[in-house]
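Reading a protein record of the kind used here takes only a little practice. To see the layout at work, look at the sequence and tokens printed below.
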Amino acid sequence: MARTSQRKAGSRRGDDRNAHRAKHPIAGRADVKPGRISPRRIVCFTTTLHRPEIKGASVDWTFLVLPAAASRKLPSRAMVSVEGTFNGAAFHATLQPDGKGGHWLKVERALREAAGAKAGDEVSLEITPMTEEPEPIVPPELRRALANAPAGKAGAPGAREVWGDITPAARRDWIHWMESAKQAETRARRVATAVDMLAKGKRRPCCFDRSGMYSKSMGCPVAADTTES
């Protein structure tokens, strides 16, 4: 009788735990480690807005580098699309990898003005990773190459068809792979290679270091004088 009562009590406790897990799916999962970041966690930080140092060119964009503690809260060392507020102004953008495990953000003039900020200012951001990847901007040279690519046939889609069928995240990876080339000649070769690989059914670039930590092919801009007159 005592053993039967203990088994029944244990069964009830098990049912209670299962009911709790049904309501709270993350509870009790073995693959969830302490400190694991939720995809929708809000990351808050302040940082300085910089003007890039670009010789022989005048630019109207600025940039910021995320503090290391803020970058560590993001789900990837590679590009991360986020949404949130910039000095209270709503925005969404894709953070770029700095090649050192961190991230930086290019701030276009429209966002900077909406935020009421200028180079040298300390700005406040609240961001969270987006649940759906936004459609990336296709570079003109890739758009032309895809437009000129041969059309596919029944059962054998061409580069344009494969490009249209892959996810926005995969399209972003192709674009990032092309734009990470440091030389114009390398970039042109990658555009041609991408179209050829897409025509062969390849849906993502192979062996691409998306973080830049190993290939040393990525980095954030160098900051110029951060004061504006």
User: Anything to note?
Assistant: Confidence is low (pLDDT under 50) at residues 16-38. DSSP finds seven helices and six strands in the chain. The beta strands are 43-50, 62-65, 80-86, 89-97, 103-107, 122-129. Helices lie at 2-23, 68-72, 109-114, 140-148, 159-165, 168-179, 184-199.
